[in-house]
Design a protein that fits this description.
Oligomer: heterodimer
CATH topology of the largest domain in chain A: Immunoglobulin-like
Distance between the termini of chain A: 88 Å
Bound molecules: copper (II) ion
Number of helices of chain A: 7
Largest interface: A-B, 65 and 72 residues
Distance between the termini of chain B: 49 Å
Order of helices and strands of chain A: HHHEEEEEEEEEEHHEEHH
Shape of chain B: globular
Shape of chain A: elongated
CATH superfamily of the largest domain in chain A: Cupredoxins -  blue copper proteins
CATH topology of one domain in chain B: Cytochrome C Oxidase, Chain A
Strand order of the largest sheet of chain A: 3-2-1-5-8
Radius of gyration of chain A: 29 Å
Structural class of chain B: mainly alpha
Largest sheet of chain A: 5 strands, mixed
CATH architecture of one domain in chain B: Up-down Bundle
CATH superfamily of one domain in chain B: Cytochrome c oxidase-like, subunit I domain
Strand content of chain A: 15-25%
Structural class of chain A: alpha+beta
Chain lengths: 332, 464
């Protein structure tokens, strides 16, 4: 009895200590969405349970090691106990109830994070190697930065142009993959104004680590002002528009200063003779540049692999391809 | 020198080179005859690697027995090759202890290779941006590190099971010694093919190889798929062998619940490797076929579904974690009683919990896919089943705690009052005693002790 009491006290103390430790070391980033609150509460229940179970096992083991160790002069074996069926049933049933309870509150929390607000702001998210594109269909605005009004639910409808990517803003906690040929959904209600980052959370090839986009959570007024500003800024110069598009989609693979990246540099490309993988060469005229963008596997540049550059035919408008060609042609 | 070249391993390697060249030449010739451009790297190299592996097995001699049977020749039931000395570790020996050591050596070699990969890319991470690797090299090292470590752990597990199980059940050898040798030796070309991806463009998908990314990765990807598929044979056939040995070759009188507890762990592990490994092989081969023949299994443009791959992949790769952990837990359950000087608490429960973990482990795979875009309601049943694994796992831990503690015993010490125990145990504790009194290498089968257990076993061998 004395042993049980001492162990019980030690277990309680250790549980408190471990839980304090787990919460104090800052495992979680800032809490910036309504969904994050639900998820963090669920996590905290688990932290308590982890602290308790860890303490129960480790304290009892260490206590036994120290207190029941073989004393000087003892040569015999331990007490011969083979087991205790009642005890085994006890520690099968109690965890069973605990587990069912945990799964139940887990399912509740999942439902909570998926709660639908019919007035949610809709954003279409398109991803590809290695860019994010956000489209606000209500306003006809397309950008590479995600602006979200605070305290209003946003519904993200997401798809991928090439391989699987994953939308993850750690401060919002929730995460969802973007799958080619499929539209997935994610609902977020940002609660804290500030600047965050979308990080791609599904390994998607060479530059995966750099696949990020800025997220700004702003007040509704700031959001409206931003939308109006986006709608009114129409760039007239095609080269200028081409540069913006290139910065969004292409610069992870193509440099404009002659340096080597995953694809060939664009510096001095227009008008040159391009050596191809099959041994021939081809003049880099407007038509070649256009084809290289919409159907990259048609001509493979010498020293590079097919299937590396994504086909942009579905993503880019005809005029956008022309803007890009104009931009590349300006890089003499 | 002549001795060196007659080693099975060396002959195998020569044959592998030959087979690879032959396969590459064959594909090129067929393409030429069909009027296609003769050289296409991917089919040629894949077929070459596959043939290379087969030729290796021939060269090393692990097909000898079967080839003799096919030719109608007699083979001895038991081949004693101990006169070869150390050289038998480099050939197709049929002795389970030799094969166990071979597994262990290969496992440790692969583990140091995989660990070196990790050291390289962690060094690269010491500073921001890339210093001495390219993006593709970085991803290749990271991906290979993952899979090489996994294969090495699988081989390490096989080492322990091969070495220990026949001795623990009092059998002379495994049920199928030739299959056992084959299971080991196929892992060697598998490892070589896996590592060859380093020199064939690498791959950037991580060890999970999800398409569509893996459908467009460089040629090294195919070597990854092929290497893992071949290593899979090792797991499947090794598992089969262990199960049959445990079921058929136990010493007389060793009822299932008298088996040493590690044997239960080995049984549970082997059930998983025998029945789940096919699924990772299948998923990888489907991507291989998609790449080679344009089949659209996972290509949305052709009506395929990338998420399907993840289901097939995780149906193995979740249970695989139990392949890694169950033997370890079994070893703990085996060693703990020795040092505590008491029998394992709740032997039957601990034994059954291994089987329980293995079975529940088959029902939880989609917890790796909560964000994958699979049907959303599936998250809930898979959460329930996943949490259920905690119950048999808990039984193990609680039973260990009870093994170590001593509530009904004397007030302060766990030792019985008198050094001579009044009644012998009803369930044999022979394993512990044999383990202690004899050196690990010359461990005598359990039976000897069971029969001579009229006097209480001594534990004087325990180091203080
Ligand atoms: Cu990505
Ligand atoms: Cu899992």
């Amino acid at each position: 009895m004395k042993h049980l009491l001492v162990i019980a006290i030690l277990v309680v103390a250790s549980t408190l200590l471990v839980h304090t430790g787990l919460t104090a070391i800052g495992l979680l980033p800032e809490q910036a969405s309504a969904q994050a609150v639900t998820i963090d509460n669920l996590l905290d229940v688990h932290f308590w349970l982890i602290s308790f179970l860890f303490s129960l096992i480790v304290v009892t083991l260490l206590y036994s090691l120290v207190v029941f160790r073989r004393k000087k002069g003892e040569t015999g074996e331990g007490v011969h106990i083979e087991g205790n069926t009642k005890l085994e049933i006890f520690w099968t049933m109690i965890p069973l109830f605990a587990v069912v309870f945990l799964a139940y509150i887990g399912a509740q929390s999942l439902g909570e994070t998926r709660r639908i607000d019919p007035t949610a702001l809709e954003v279409d998210v398109t991803s590809g190697q290695w860019y994010w594109r956000f489209e606000y269909p209500e306003y006809g605005v397309t950008t590479d930065k995600l602006y979200l009004p605070v305290d209003r639910q946003t519904l993200l409808r997401m798809t991928s142009m090439d391989v699987i990517h994953s939308f993850w803003v750690p401060e919002f906690r929730v995460k969802q993959d973007l799958v080619p040929g499929q539209t997935t959904e994610l609902r977020i209600t940002p609660t804290l104004a500030g600047e965050y980052k979308v990080l791609c959370a599904e390994l998607c090839g060479a530059s995966h680590a750099y696949m990020e986009a800025k997220v700004y959570v702003v007040t509704q007024e700031e959001f409206d002002a931003w939308i109006i500003e986006q709608q009114s800024t129409v760039v007239l110069d095609p080269v200028q528009r081409g540069r913006q598009l290139a910065n969004q989609y292409c610069v992870t693979c193509h440099s404009v200063d002659g340096s080597q990246k995953i694809g060939p540099s664009w510096l001095g490309l227009a008008g040159s003779e391009v050596p191809l993988e099959d041994g021939t060469t081809i003049p880099a005229d407007t038509e070649y540049l256009r084809l290289s963008i919409v159907n990259p596997n048609l001509h493979i540049v010498e020293g590079y692999n097919a299937n590396v550059m994504p086909a942009f035919a579905n993503l880019l408008e005809q005029t956008e391809v022309e803007d890009l060609v104009a931009y590349i042609e300006s890089l003499k | 020198m002549k001795k060196f070249f007659s080693l099975g391993l060396i002959r195998g390697l020569w044959w592998e080179i030959l087979g690879t060249a032959f396969g590459i030449g064959f594909v090129t010739l067929v393409r030429l005859l069909m009027g296609l451009p003769a050289w296409k790297a991917e089919p040629a190299v894949v077929f070459g690697a596959l043939l290379g592996a087969l030729f290796f097995l021939y060269g090393v001699g692990s097909l000898d027995g079967w080839l003799k049977w096919a030719a109608g020749e007699e083979t001895p039931e038991h081949v004693d090759d101990s006169h070869l000395g150390w050289r038998r570790y480099f050939g197709a020996s049929l002795d389970h202890k030799v094969i166990g050591i071979q597994y262990l050596a290969l496992s440790l070699i692969l583990m140091s290779v995989g660990g070196t990969f990790a050291l390289i890319f962690r060094t690269e991470l010491a500073e921001v941006q890339l210093q001495f690797l390219t993006l593709n090299q970085y991803n290749t090292l990271m991906s290979l590190h993952g899979i090489v470590m996994i294969v090495s752990i699988l081989l390490g597990i096989a080492a322990f099971m091969n070495y220990l199980v026949p001795m623990l059940i009092g059998a002379r050898d495994m049920a199928f010694p030739r299959l056992n040798s084959f299971s080991f030796w196929i892992a060697v070309p598998a490892g070589l093919i896996l590592l060859s991806s380093l020199f064939l463009g690498g791959f950037d998908t991580g060890w999970t190889g999800y398409p569509p990314l893996s459908a467009r990765a460089p040629l090294g990807m195919q070597m990854f798929f092929l290497g893992v598929s071949l290593a899979g044979f090792s797991s499947i056939l090794g598992g089969l062998n262990i199960i049959v040995s445990i079921v058929r070759l136990r010493a007389k009188g060793m009822a299932p619940f008298k088996m040493p507890i590690f044997v239960w762990a080995a049984l549970a592990t082997s059930l998983i490797s025998l029945t789940a490994t096919q699924l990772i092989g299948l998923s990888f081969q489907m991507v291989m076929l998609q790449r080679l023949f344009g089949m659209g299994f996972f290509d949305p443009a052709k009506g395929g579904n990338p998420v399907l791959f993840q289901h097939l992949f995780w149906f193995y790769s979740h249970p695989a974690v139990y392949v890694f952990v169950l033997p370890g837990l079994g070893i703990i359950s085996e060693l703990l009683p020795v040092f505590v000087r008491k029998p394992l608490f709740g032997y039957k429960w601990v034994a059954m919990s291994s089987i329980g973990i293995a079975l529940v482990g088959f029902l939880v795979w989609a917890h790796h896919m909560f964000t994958s875009g699979m049907a959303e309601y599936l998250r809930v049943p898979f959460m329930y089943s996943t949490l259920l694994v905690a119950i048999p796992t808990g039984v193990k831990f609680f039973s260990w705690v009870a093994t170590c503690s001593c509530w009904p015993g004397s007030s302060s010490s766990c030792s019985a009052a008198s050094p001579v125990r009044p009644t012998p145990p009803s369930r044999p504790t022979c394993i512990y005693t044999t383990r202690i009194t004899s050196s690990a290498i010359s461990m005598t089968p359990c039976m000897a002790v069971i029969s001579s257990r009229s006097s209480p076993p001594s534990i004087t061998g325990i180091p203080r």
